[in-house]
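Sample 1 of the test manifest.
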Amino acid sequence: MQKLVQQRLKKLEAMPKLIGPVSVKVSDVPTGTWRYRRPVIRHGDCVKCGICAEYCPCGVIEKTEGKMVIDYTYCKGCGICTTECPKKAIDFVLESECNKEGD
Amino acid sequence: MGVIKALDGNAAIAHGVMRSKVQLVAAYPITPQTPIVETIASLIDKKEYEATYITAESEHSALSAIIGAASTGVRTFTASASHGLALMHELTGTCSASRLPAVMAVVSRAIPGPMALWCDHSDIMTQRDQGWIQLFAKSPQEALDFTMIAYRVSEDERVLTPTMVDIDGFYCSHLTERVDVPSEEEAEKFIGDFKVVNAHLDTDMPYAMNNLTSPGIFTEIKRSQDLGMRAASGVLDERFEEFGNVFGRRYSRIICDDVEDAETVVVCMGSMSGTAKHVVKQLRASGKKVGVCRIVAFRPFPSRELSGVLRGVRNVAVIDRVSAMGSFGPLYEEVLAAMNYGRIGANAYSFVAGLGGRDIWEQTIEDVIAKAEELGARGETCQAPIWIDLKEEKVVYNA
Amino acid sequence: MPELDLVSKGMTTCQGCAMELIARAALEVLGPKTITMTPPSCSAIITGNGDETGWGIPCVQTVLMSLPAFASGVSEALKIQGKNDVKVMGYAGDGGTFDIGFQALSGAIERGHKAIYICCNNEAYMNTGGQRSSATTIGATTKTTPTGKKEVSKNIDFMLLHTPLAYQATASVGDIRDFKRKVAKAAEKDGPCFIHVMSPCPSGWKYPTDQTIAIAKKAIRSGMWLLWERENGKITINRKPADFDAIPEYLHSQKRFSRLDDETTEKIIAEARTRYQTLLKLSELELN
């Protein structure tokens, strides 16, 4: 579960009854299902500069335990990270290929 | 103790705003409302009144700023008329649906076209279904009092619905009368500090307001709005009572004169009701059984109360200060619905009068009553509105 | 990455949407003590629908015509409440800024309310399917200019030069660090701030989704998009265009310019050069 949803769930418990058009939940669409190509980081070539995360529109790339990690639940597969990576260390792989390899 | 001042309707509203401890005013000048915002600006400037005044660059922006401020959690006021109210139209719906308790003074002026500066109710009637409580004052004193009452009703948790306080352009807005302006201490007995009781913009409790709404929930949100509006009837009664106890001036959602045994009753709103009351008194003196019923709260409409008044009446003459071209006036339709509510079988006739600032004289009211009685005696139904003060010879029409 | 997520990951903005990235970057700088508002536009997708919202901060969906006036009301109400540490961010597109919302914008700036107005310029009404706006580049095809727009776009930045903005800047999603720096600067100001951000749109400009940042960078490099800021009466140019002759490459990378003739291309290049020359001269002046 993404952090924002967790934060909001906590707040929701203390939320008073509100009247009118009010949206209290966080949009949480698993947009990863939109993807037909998947960015895959070759960790050996990755220098962890973080540019991919900086330019990811969906905010799904994070540095975790010393390496860049993509959250495929939400990654829409736009491919911006593959283009912007200065080391060209992110492959853009067809989802169908990933499935074949059991990724 | 209050102070007795000679104020016109506009200045009275400005003093009502000050005494209601409004924190933020945003407005754009328009005739005949301009003196309200001028007076408020001047009171603030002279440090008699502490508030923020946003000099918006349009009425659209004025109401937008009001909604922004009300969403953040402060007490707000704006005023408009005619074109300005038309420009606000999309926002009046936003404000009420967001359940923001703003108050607006509407100084009624004909909506174009043709271009006109003078009074009729075509401006406020465009707003009748926008979800605002609508109170029609007939005098400067009422204008001040209704403004204060409006805040208490709009901000009530059971209501959370904005209010328009309507006065007739020039007839009331520029009519100077004796007005009892409550002192700060006296007003304090009725008006408290603004308290946020519903959704607002708070960084400690983030959520979205006024979002896109799907067919799955739109109806329910509208219904809850409708219930809030309906609850305003009872809350208005409570606040009128409380206001009367504090200030000694008593009001109700409909105010009637001489209706008890009346055969013919005039139903009207706003400044013309003073003239109607006067005419009715004179006709009573000559033995005619006539009465007048003034609608103070047009929204929520006092259907039950009105049907109670009209029970046993033979003829009902409804005067709309607006023409619903091709159909009947809005007040007439409300009266018919109220009559149906109470299974009242009286004759009801629709009259159009006083458009674009045409004066409603005693003679106009006498003509209305005579016409209603004449049609009633013949047992005729109302087939079309009667343009009672029309100069027939000036009507240009390609037959 | 910020400690707190202030924008949800699971939102239905298009693949490769620059506007989404701009929102994330802005809030990374402004933090949770920010109130935002969006007009009906692509940015309203973040505000969400039904009982869901993409923002982790308080937000409102305003009407299209007067978001800046709404911000005025919020800003003044916060002042009344003594909440001086809360920032107000208007987040609109070019339609709501250049066209229908321009009057309200000019009014709010003139009155001097403290608020940061961010305009994500994707050069058309993209949320309604891509109709031309006054920000659309000449020659670009849109749903309402099927053979290419005939008029040059409105230069809103130059129009706003003579307004009492506490801070004015152009920025681009192609240089996100520069954008964040500018947002941080705006956050320090006690008056109206306007940041105009280039926000390429894969759906409307018709290019592959991975090219959003690359195209924005091409625009900066070729002088199609100038990066500058104005404060204290002085214009500072942040980046000198590298090569105006690279403009055709920028244009050809987008299918919306596929109907462009040589004459219009020349016109676009000439206009870009003039724009830069004007800016250079302006940067030598004391503006107020």
